[in-house]
C-alpha cells in the first residue's frame, strides 16, 4: 500500500567542468556519498577519459576532475568503474582491454589537482563485459575472444575458460521419463511404436529462438547479493549460421577458486540482453520480447520482464506497459535492483526520449511506482543508471551533459478526514492507474482494490484533501488532476452498493520550463492546490505554484530546497527544508521560520493540527509543536506510524504497536506537567514486519500490511475504547452497547464510565436497547466492582469514577427492574427475572414471586418464564427456595419443568401435606437446613414441643436463638442454661461453662468447671460460700498449689499454701524452686523462721547457679559449632560458587536421543491445531505433573541444602537468635548474683565464677558476630547476581538485605562486688 515519493533532486552540470560526454558508468563512496563519473571525448583518434568527483551536500552539488586516462581507438569506451572505500582507489576497465587504477586518498576535498591513471594490466583481445563481486574480492571479465576470466582483487588470474559450453552445468536436471513417449501405452501398435522415431517437422528450418535486431550483442554480468553466484547473459550464434540467440549461464563463485557452471537457462525465445540478479537471491531479472519471428510466442507489442530461478527455469514476471512503437524500435538499456531488493529500475529507450521506470512487488504483483525522464529536453538520452550501494532509495541518472540524483521515500497516500466523514481511503500508484480502497467499508486485498482511477500517466505524487473526500495527482509534465471520490459511507438502512462513484472534476496544467524545473510533490489545501518544484540550476531552490480555482500563483523558496510540503487545516502549508528546518508558508507567500529543527530525510512525516510528527531514518519518532517549537521524542526503533484525531499509532521492530493519546502529547508539547503513568502508552502485539497503513476513527480499525503484502485489519483496544467513551458521554448507549458486544468488551463500561449519568438516564438506555436479549445480556454481565476500568489503564486513569462502588450490581438490577416493570411487565418478563437472579446473592425468592404474580394475571406466559428462570439458576437451589416459601403449587411447577424425577419429591410433598401448619414448616426448614427457623416453628407449636426443642437446639447448638425464645420462661431457661454449660464444658471452655452453671444454680458443676479452669480464687470463694468441708477445701488447695508450682506460678502457689494451710516450709521451698529468693526471704522474716535459710535458700542458690552455668555451656557449644561451620562455608563459596549459590547450569542436550519431560516442551501449536490450553493440559496428563507441583518440587529440593547460601543465612540468623537468648540469661542472672554475694563467703565464690563465665561468653559472642557479618554484603550481592535458587529463588532477598547486624549491649553484672 506504499508508493514512492521523491524528496530530493540534485543536478550537476558537467559541461562547465570539462568538455565531453558523460559515460553511463559510475561509482559511489558510501562514506561521503561522493559520486565518481567518467567523461569521455575523442581527440585525434584517442579517447580521453576524465574521472569527475561530485561531492554531494545539502541542496547542492560540486564537481571536479580528480584523474584522467587516455585510450587508443575511437571505439574504446569505459566498461566499468568501481570504487574501493578501504584504500580509496578507483578501478577503470576499458573495452580495448586496459585496467587502470586512480588513487584518490592523496587528495582532500578541496584539492583541485588531477592524477593520471596507472595501468595495471591489459587484455589483448579486449574486454566485452566486466563486473565486481559484491564482496569486492572477485572480478569477472568476458574477453573479446569470448572467454570467461576471473581475477582476484589484486588482478591475479584465478581461472579462464570458454564462455559458451554445450554442457548444461552441475545442476543438470534428472529425467526419469515421466510423460515421455517411451512410457506411454500404445495399444495394438505394441512396443515397436514406443521405439519408433518421431517425425521431424519441415517447418523447423529456422531456429525457434532468435535475438531481436535491437540487441546490442554485448554480454552482461550480474552477481547475486552474497557473491556466491553470478549470471552471464551472452548472445550465442547458431553453428554455420549468422543467426544467434540469447542465453543466460549461472556460475557458482567459491571464494578464491575457479567458478563452476551451475545451470543454463531454459529455451526462452525473445530473450534480450539486460539481466540483473536480485540481491536477496531468489530471482534473476531478464527481458523477453514477444511477437516477432524468433521471439516469444505472443501478440505484437508484448514485452515482459521475466524472472528466472538459479536453476535457469522461469519463475513469473510482469509485462512492460509500453506502446507498440517502443516495442518495435525501442529497447531496454539497463535494469538494476536496489540494495534492499525492493525496487527494480528499468531504463527504456523510447523513440522520443529515455525513461527510467521504478517497479516494486507485493503479493506477487509488480507495481509501476515512478517514471523518471531526463530533464535535458526533447530527444534527451540517458547514458547510465545506478543505485547507491547503501542508501536503498537513492538513484543516480547519468545524462549526456548532466548528472542527476533522485532520492525517494516510501509514502502511504491516505485520507485523514475527521469523523464521521472519515473514509480511511488509501491510494496506491500503479502506472497510469490509481488503486483506491476506502478501508472504512472494505478491506480489499492487494493487488486488487475497491476501484481504480485512470490518470494520464504515472503520477509523481498524490495528495488527499484534509477536509473533502477528494485527491489530486501531480505528473511529470506538470499536469494536475483533481478527483472527487464520493466514497460511500456505511449506512444501516441501505446494504450493498458501489464502494464509490469517483468523478474527475478538474485537470490543470502548471506552466514551467521543464528544463529548469522538476515537479516533486503536491499538497491539497482547503481551497487550493500547491505544487512543489525543484530547480535544475547550479543555485538550487524550490518553487511553489499555487492553483486557486485554476489560477496559478508562484512563490520561490530561496536559500534552501524544500524536501517535504504538507498541508494543514488552516489553509497554510508546512515545509521541511533539506537541512531539517521547519517553515510555515502562508497564503500571502511569506515564509515563517520556526524554532523546530528535525533530522533531515525523514522516513515519514505528518502534520496533525498544530503538531508535526517526524520519523527519522534511524527509527526515532519525535513530535514537535508548530506553535511553541517544543520537540519531544516519542520512541526509538519505530518502523511506521499513522494517526487519528485521538491517537498517534506507531509500530516498532519489536513486533508491537503503540498508541499515543494526542491530548497527552499536546500537554507535553505545551510544557504542562504530565505524570509518569500518563506516558506509558497502550501496546498491542503485531506480526513481525507489519507496517501501519492507516487507521479509521469511526470504524475503530487499524490496517496493517505484512511483509509479503497482504493486509490485516485489527481493532485495537484504545481505538475501540475511545469510541465507547465518546458514545457513553453523549448518551448513545445503543452504539456503545453494540460496540462492546462486537469487540467483547466488558459491558460494565456502560455504567462505570459515568455511574451517575447512567442511573439518571436509565430510561434512555432501555429505550435505545430495546431488544430483551440485549438487556438480559447486559444484566447478566454486571459485576459488583469497577474492574472494567481497572482492566484498561487509560480509562482507569482518566475516568473520575474509577473508585470501587459497593452494592453496584444490586442497585442497577433494582433500577432496571423498576424501569421495565413500568413499561411492560409481559414484554420484559425475562429481564425482570434476570434482575432478580443476577443479584448478589441471587434473589430467587423475588423471582419466584414474579412467577406467582404472572400465574395470577398472565398464566399464558408462566411456562416460558419458569423455563427461563430455571435456565438462569441452579435448579436445586431454586427448588429449595420455592419449598422454603411454603407454596407447594410453586414447588410442583419448578420441579416439573426442571426435569426432576417425581420419585424424588412427590412422596416428600405428600408427607408434608398431612402435617399441621407449624409442624409442616418445621419439617420444611429442617429439610432445608434452616435450623433457626425450624426451632422457632417448634417454639410456636407450644409447650408440648419443648422437649423436641431442647433436643433440636442441642443437636444444632442453637443456644443463642433458644435464649431469645425462652427468655420469659425461667424454668425452661434454667434447663437451657445448664445444657449450654455442659456444651461449653465439653468444649473445654471452663470459665464460661462455670458462668452458665452459676446462672442455672448448679454450684457443684460450677466448682468442677472452676477447678478445670484453674481459677483457684473463684473456686475457693465458691467453696466457702457453699460451706464445703475443711477436708474438701484442703484437697482443693493441694491440687491447685501443685498445678501452680509445676506451671511456673510459684508466687501464687506459695500464697495459696500460706493463706489456707499456713505451710511456711512448703511456701519457701516453692519460692526457692522458682528462683524467687527475695520473696522467700520476706516470708522467712515475716514468720521468723531463720532456720529455713540453711535448709532451703542456700541449696536453692547453688542449684540456680549450676542451672545458669549449664545454659552458658550449651550456648557456648552451639556458638563454637556455628562459627566453625561458617568458616567451612566460606571455603565452599570460594571453591565452588555455583554450588554455594545453587545455580542450575543449562543441561547439555547435545546427543540426547530420548525425549523426556525435561527436554520436551509443549507448544501452543499442536499437530492437530489443538487449543493452547488443551495442548498444555495434555502435556500435564502425559507427565503426570502440573506446573504447580513442578515448581513446588523445584523449591523443595534446594531449600536448606547443606553447603549452600541458605545454610549460611540460617547460621547467621541463628547467631542473632543466640544474642537475644544471651541477653535474657544475663538479665535473669543479676538477682541471683546479688543473693549469692549476700548469702555466704562460699556462695560469693560461686557468684564470681558465674559472672566471669557470662562475661567471657558475651565477649566471644561479640567476636563471632563480627566474623559472621564480615563479608555478608558481598555474599548477598553475589547471590543476587548469580540468579541461583538461594533465598527461596530470590523471593526472600529483600528480607535478607533488611536484616540488621545484632549488637551485644554492655553488661557488667555486679562489678567488683563479686570479686
Automatic annotation (TrEMBL):
Domain ELP1 N-terminal second beta-propeller: 428-691
Residues in ELP1 three-helical bundle domain copies: 1091-1255
Gene3D superfamilies per UniProt: YVTN repeat-like/Quinoprotein amine dehydrogenase
Entry coiled-coil feature ranges: 1101-1132
Residues of the ELP1 TPR domain: 920-1082
Family, per entry: Belongs to the ELP1/IKA1 family.
Name under which the protein is recorded: Elongator complex protein 1
Species of origin: Kockovaella imperatae
Upper classification of the organism: Eukaryota, Fungi, Dikarya, Basidiomycota, Agaricomycotina
Amino acid at each position: 500500500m506504499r508508493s514512492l515519493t521523491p524528496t530530493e533532486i540534485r543536478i550537476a552540470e558537467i559541461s562547465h567542468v570539462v568538455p565531453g560526454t558523460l559515460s553511463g558508468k559510475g561509482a559511489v563512496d558510501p562514506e561521503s556519498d561522493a559520486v565518481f563519473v567518467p567523461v569521455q571525448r575523442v581527440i585525434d583518434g584517442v579517447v580521453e577519459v576524465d574521472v569527475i568527483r561530485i561531492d554531494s551536500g545539502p541542496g547542492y552539488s560540486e564537481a571536479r576532475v580528480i584523474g584522467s586516462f587516455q585510450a587508443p581507438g575511437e571505439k574504446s569506451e569505459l566498461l566499468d568503474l568501481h570504487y574501493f572505500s578501504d584504500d580509496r582507489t578507483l578501478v577503470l576497465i576499458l573495452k580495448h582491454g586496459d585496467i587502470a587504477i586512480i588513487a584518490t586518498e592523496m587528495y582532500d576535498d578541496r584539492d583541485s589537482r588531477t592524477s593520471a591513471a596507472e595501468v595495471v594490466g591489459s587484455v589483448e583481445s579486449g574486454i566485452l563485459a566486466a563486473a565486481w563481486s559484491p564482496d569486492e574480492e572477485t572480478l569477472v571479465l568476458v574477453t573479446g575472444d569470448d572467454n570467461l576470466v576471473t581475477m582476484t582483487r589484486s588482478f591475479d588470474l584465478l581461472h579462464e575458460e570458454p564462455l559458451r559450453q554445450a554442457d548444461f552445468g552441475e545442476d543438470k536436471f534428472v529425467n526419469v521419463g515421466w510423460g515421455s513417449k517411451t512410457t506411454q501405452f500404445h495399444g495394438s501398435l505394441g512396443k515397436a511404436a514406443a521405439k519408433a522415431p518421431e517425425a521431424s517437422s519441415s517447418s523447423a528450418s529456422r531456429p525457434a529462438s532468435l535475438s531481436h535486431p535491437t540487441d546490442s550483442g554485448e554480454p552482461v554480468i550480474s552477481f547475486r547479493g552474497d557473491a556466491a553466484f553470478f549470471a552471464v547473459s551472452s548472445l550465442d550464434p547458431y553453428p554455420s549460421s549468422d543467426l544467434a540467440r540469447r542465453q543466460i549461464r549461472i556460475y557458482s563463485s567459491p571464494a578464491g577458486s575457479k567458478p563452476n557452471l551451475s545451470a543454463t537457462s531454459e529455451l526462452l525465445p525473445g530473450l534480450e540482453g539486460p539481466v540483473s540478479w536480485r540481491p536477496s537471491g531468489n530471482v534473476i531479472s531478464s527481458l523477453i520480447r514477444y511477437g516477432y519471428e524468433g521471439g516469444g510466442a505472443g501478440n505484437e507489442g508484448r514485452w515482459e520482464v521475466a524472472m528466472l530461478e538459479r536453476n535457469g527455469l522461469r519463475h513469473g514476471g510482469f509485462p512492460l506497459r509500453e506502446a507498440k512503437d517502443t516495442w518495435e524500435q525501442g529497447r531496454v538499456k539497463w535494469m538494476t535492483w536496489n540494495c534492499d531488493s525492493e525496487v527494480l529500475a528499468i531504463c527504456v529507450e523510447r523513440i522520443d526520449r529515455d525513461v527510467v521506470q521504478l517497479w516494486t512487488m507485493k503479493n506477487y504483483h509488480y507495481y509501476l511506482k515512478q517514471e523518471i525522464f531526463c530533464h535535458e529536453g526533447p530527444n534527451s538520452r540517458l547514458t547510465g543508471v545506478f543505485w547507491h550501494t547503501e542508501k536503498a532509495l537513492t538513484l543516480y541518472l547519468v545524462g549526456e551533459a548532466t548528472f542527476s540524483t533522485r532520492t525517494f521515500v516510501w509514502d502511504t497516500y491516505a485520507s485523514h478526514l475527521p469523523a464521521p466523514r472519515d473514509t480511511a481511503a488509501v491510494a496506491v500508484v500503479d502506472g497510469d492507474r490509481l488503486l483506491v480502497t476506502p478501508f472504512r467499508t472494505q478491506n480489499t486485498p492487494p493487488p486488487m482494490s475497491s476501484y481504480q482511477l485512470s490518470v494520464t500517466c504515472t503520477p509523481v505524487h498524490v495528495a488527499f484533501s484534509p477536509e473533502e473526500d477528494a485527491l489530486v495527482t501531480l505528473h511529470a509534465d506538470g499536469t494536475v488532476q483533481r478527483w472527487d471520490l464520493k466514497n460511500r459511507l456505511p449506512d444501516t438502512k441501505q446494504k450493498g452498493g458501489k464502494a464509490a462513484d469517483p468523478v474527475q472534476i478538474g485537470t490543470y496544467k502548471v506552466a514551467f520550463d521543464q528544463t529548469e524545473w522538476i515537479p516533486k510533490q503536491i499538497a491539497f489545501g482547503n481551497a487550493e492546490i500547491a505544487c512543489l518544484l525543484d530547480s535544475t540550476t547550479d543555485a538550487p531552490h524550490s518553487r511553489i505554484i499555487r492553483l486557486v480555482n485554476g489560477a496559478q500563483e508562484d512563490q520561490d523558496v530561496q536559500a534552501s530546497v524544500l524536501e517535504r510540503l504538507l498541508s494543514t487545516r488552516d489553509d497554510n502549508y508546512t515545509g521541511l527544508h533539506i537541512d531539517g528546518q521547519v517553515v510555515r508558508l502562508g497564503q500571502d507567500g511569506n515564509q515563517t521560520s520556526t524554532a523546530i529543527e528535525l533530522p533531515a530525510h525523514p522516513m515519514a512525516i505528518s502534520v496533525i493540527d498544530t503538531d508535526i510528527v517526524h520519523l527519522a531514518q534511524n527509527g526515532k519518532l519525535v513530535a514537535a509543536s508548530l506553535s511553541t517549537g517544543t520537540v519531544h521524542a516519542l520512541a526509538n526503533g519505530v518502523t511506521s506510524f499513522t494517526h487519528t484525531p485521538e491517537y498517534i499509532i506507531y509500530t516498532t521492530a519489536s513486533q508491537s504497536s503503540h498508541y499515543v493519546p494526542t491530548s497527552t502529547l499536546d500537554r507535553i508539547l505545551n510544557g504542562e506537567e504530565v505524570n509518569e503513568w500518563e506516558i506509558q502508552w497502550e501496546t498491542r502485539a503485531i506480526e513481525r514486519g507489519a507496517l501501519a497503513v492507516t487507521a479509521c476513527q469511526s470504524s475503530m480499525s487499524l490496517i496493517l500490511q505484512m511483509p509479503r503484502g497482504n493486509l490485516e485489519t485489527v481493532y485495537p483496544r484504545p481505538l475501540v475504547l475511545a469510541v465507547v467513551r465518546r458514545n457513553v458521554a453523549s448518551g448513545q448507549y445503543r452504539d456503545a452497547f453494540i460496540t462492546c458486544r462486537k469487540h467483547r468488551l466488558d459491558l460494565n463500561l456502560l455504567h462505570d464510565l459515568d455511574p451517575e449519568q447512567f442511573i439518571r438516564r436509565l430510561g434512555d438506555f432501555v429505550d435505545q436497547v430495546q431488544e430483551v436479549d440485549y438487556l438480559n445480556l447486559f444484566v447478566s454481565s454486571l459485576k459488583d466492582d469497577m474492574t472494567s476500568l481497572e482492566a484498561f489503564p487509560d480509562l482507569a486513569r482518566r475516568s473520575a469514577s474509577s473508585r470501587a462502588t459497593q452494592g453496584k450490581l444490586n442497585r442497577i438490577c433494582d433500577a432496571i427492574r423498576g424501569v421495565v416493570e413500568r413499561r411492560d411487565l409481559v414484554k420484559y418478563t425475562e429481564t425482570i427475572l434476570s434482575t432478580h437472579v443476577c443479584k448478589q446473592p441471587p434473589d430467587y425468592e423475588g423471582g419466584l414471586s414474579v412467577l406467582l404474580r404472572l400465574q395470577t394475571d398472565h398464566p399464558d406466559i408462566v411456562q416460558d418464564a419458569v423455563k427461563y428462570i430455571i435456565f438462569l439458576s441452579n435448579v436445586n437451589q431454586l427448588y429449595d427456595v420455592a419449598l422454603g416459601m411454603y407454596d407447594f403449587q410453586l414447588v410442583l411447577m419448578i420441579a416439573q419443568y426442571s426435569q426432576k424425577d417425581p420419585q424424588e419429591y412427590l412422596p416428600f410433598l405428600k408427607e408434608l401435606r398431612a402435617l399441621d401448619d407449624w409442624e409442616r414448616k418445621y419439617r420444611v426448614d429442617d429439610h432445608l437446613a434452616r435450623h433457626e427457623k425450624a426451632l422457632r416453628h417448634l417454639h410456636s407449636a407450644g409447650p408440648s414441643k419443648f422437649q423436641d426443642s431442647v433436643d433440636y437446639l442441642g443437636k444444632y447448638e442453637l443456644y443463642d436463638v433458644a435464649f431469645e425464645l425462652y427468655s420469659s420462661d425461667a424454668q425452661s431457661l434454667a434447663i437451657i442454661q445448664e445444657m449450654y454449660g455442659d456444651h461449653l464444658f465439653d468444649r473445654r471452655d471452663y470459665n464460661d461453662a462455670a458462668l452458665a452453671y452459676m446462672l442455672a444454680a448448679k454450684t457443684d458443676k460450677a466448682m468442677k468447671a472452676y477447678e478445670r479452669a484453674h481459677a483457684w480464687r473463684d473456686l475457693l470463694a465458691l467453696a466457702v460460700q457453699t460451706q464445703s468441708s475443711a477436708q474438701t477445701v484442703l484437697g482443693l488447695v493441694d491440687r491447685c498449689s501443685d498445678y501452680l508450682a509445676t506451671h511456673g506460678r510459684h508466687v501464687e502457689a506459695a500464697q495459696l499454701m500460706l493463706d489456707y494451710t499456713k505451710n511456711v516450709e512448703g511456701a519457701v521451698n516453692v519460692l526457692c524452686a522458682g528462683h524467687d529468693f527475695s520473696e522467700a526471704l520476706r516470708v522467712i522474716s515475716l514468720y521468723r523462721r531463720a532456720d529455713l535459710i540453711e535448709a532451703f535458700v542456700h541449696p536453692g542458690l547453688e542449684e540456680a547457679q549450676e542451672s545458669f552455668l549449664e545454659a552458658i555451656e550449651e550456648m557456648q557449644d552451639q556458638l563454637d559449632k556455628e562459627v566453625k561451620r561458617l568458616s567451612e562455608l566460606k571455603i565452599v563459596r570460594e571453591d565452588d560458587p555455583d554450588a554455594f549459590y545453587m545455580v542450575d547450569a543449562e543441561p547439555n542436550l547435545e546427543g540426547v536421543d530420548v525425549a523426556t519431560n525435561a527436554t520436551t516442551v509443549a507448544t501452543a501449536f499442536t499437530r492437530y491445531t489443538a487449543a493452547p490450553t488443551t495442548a498444555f493440559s495434555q502435556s500435564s496428563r502425559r507427565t503426570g505433573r502440573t506446573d504447580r507441583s513442578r515448581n513446588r518440587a523445584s523449591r523443595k529440593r534446594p531449600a536448606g541444602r547443606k553447603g549452600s547460601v541458605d545454610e549460611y543465612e540460617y547460621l547467621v540468623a541463628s547467631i542473632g537468635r543466640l544474642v537475644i537468648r544471651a541477653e535474657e540469661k544475663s538479665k535473669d542472672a543479676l538477682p541471683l548474683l546479688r543473693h549469692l554475694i549476700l548469702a555466704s563467703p562460699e556462695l560469693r565464690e560461686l557468684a564470681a565464677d558465674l559472672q566471669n563465665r557470662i562475661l567471657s561468653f558475651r565477649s566471644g559472642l561479640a567476636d563471632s558476630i563480627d566474623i559472621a557479618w564480615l563479608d555478608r554484603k558481598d555474599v548477598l550481592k553475589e547471590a543476587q547476581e548469580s540468579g541461583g535458587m538461594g533465598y527461596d529463588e530470590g523471593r526472600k532477598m529483600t528480607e535478607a538485605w533488611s536484616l540488621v547486624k545484632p549488637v551485644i549491649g554492655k553488661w557488667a553484672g555486679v562489678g567488683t562486688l563479686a570479686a
